[in-house]
């Protein structure tokens, strides 16, 4: 139902100006979804950045997803929330955000993948496919084989995340995953627009 093909996750280390540049370019280059990921700033800063992205994305058809915080998503009327395993339980988040918003959940191993199948979520983020310097606390890497098996068993759409770039995206696309989520391959590209265009072409 939603298009997860090229899912941009923002880099919290980029300032507002860099963030705006990346989002404008990435949308022009064809990203299909944007997640605002803030791990260290205070909630006011989070909300401010969310409001900026909300207005940048309005009218583009690209949904804005908020990482971790249901309250921030509701406060700015974002299109959805992405939860980790230690965030608010999915059932409660769904009750708060309603049926019309997008709800995603990260799964880090097979047990979590199986348990998530009966949850009221729209998609699962398979974290992490490869080890990545962007998130150093991931415990397990699914690899291409793990992803391919997960795609076969999951009833829910899977979005692959972690260490994905132009060099390995084809192997990911071949597994039948619904999409890929990336930070550095787009946020740190000299031209986020050109990077998004070529990543999208490789995904298709
Ligand atoms: N969750 C699992 S890996 C990751 C997140 C947020 C970071 C992905 O970043 P990159 O730079 O695309 O490897
Ligand atoms: Mg999280």
From TrEMBL:
Cofactor(s) it depends on: Mg(2+)
Signal sequence extent: none
One GO CC annotation: cytoplasm
CDD domains xrefs: TMP_TenI (cd00564)
EC category name: transferase
UniProt cofactor note: Binds 1 Mg(2+) ion per subunit.
SUPFAM superfamilies: Thiamin phosphate synthase
Keywords, comma-separated and alphabetical: Magnesium, Metal-binding, Thiamine biosynthesis, Transferase
MF term (GO), any: magnesium ion binding
Chain positions recorded as 2-[(2R,5Z)-2-carboxy-4-methylthiazol-5(2H)-ylidene]ethyl phosphate binding sites: 132-134, 163, 183-184
Reaction(s) catalysed (UniProt annotation): 4-methyl-5-(2-phosphooxyethyl)-thiazole + 4-amino-2-methyl-5-(diphosphooxymethyl)pyrimidine + H(+) = thiamine phosphate + diphosphate; 2-(2-carboxy-4-methylthiazol-5-yl)ethyl phosphate + 4-amino-2-methyl-5-(diphosphooxymethyl)pyrimidine + 2 H(+) = thiamine phosphate + CO2 + diphosphate; 2-[(2R,5Z)-2-carboxy-4-methylthiazol-5(2H)-ylidene]ethyl phosphate + 4-amino-2-methyl-5-(diphosphooxymethyl)pyrimidine + 2 H(+) = thiamine phosphate + CO2 + diphosphate
Function description: Condenses 4-methyl-5-(beta-hydroxyethyl)thiazole monophosphate (THZ-P) and 2-methyl-4-amino-5-hydroxymethyl pyrimidine pyrophosphate (HMP-PP) to form thiamine monophosphate (TMP).
Protein's name according to its UniProt entry: Thiamine-phosphate synthase
Species: Photobacterium sanctipauli
Organism phylogeny: Bacteria, Pseudomonadati, Pseudomonadota, Gammaproteobacteria, Vibrionales
């Amino acid at each position: 139902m939603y298009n997860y093909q090229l899912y941009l996750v923002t880099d919290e280390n980029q300032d507002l100006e860099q963030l705006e540049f990346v989002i404008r370019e990435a949308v022009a280059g064809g990203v299909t979804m944007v997640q605002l990921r803030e791990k260290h700033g205070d909630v006011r800063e989070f909300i401010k950045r969310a409001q900026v992205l909300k207005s940048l994305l309005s009218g583009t058809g690209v949904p804005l997803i908020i990482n971790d915080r249901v309250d921030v998503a509701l406060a700015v009327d974002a299109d959805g929330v992405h939860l980790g395993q230690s965030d608010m339980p999915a059932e409660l988040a769904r009750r708060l955000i309603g049926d019309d918003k997008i709800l995603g959940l990260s799964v880090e191993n097979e047990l979590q993948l199986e348990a998530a199948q009966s949850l009221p979520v729209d998609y699962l983020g398979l974290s992490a496919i490869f080890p990545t310097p962007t998130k150093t606390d991931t415990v397990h890497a699914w690899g291409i084989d793990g992803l391919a098996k997960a795609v076969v068993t999951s009833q829910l759409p899977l979005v692959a995340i972690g260490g994905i770039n132009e060099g390995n995206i084809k192997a990911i696309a071949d597994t039948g995953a619904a999409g890929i989520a990336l930070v550095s391959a787009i946020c740190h590209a000299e031209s986020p627009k050109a990077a998004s265009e070529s990543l999208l072409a490789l995904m298709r």
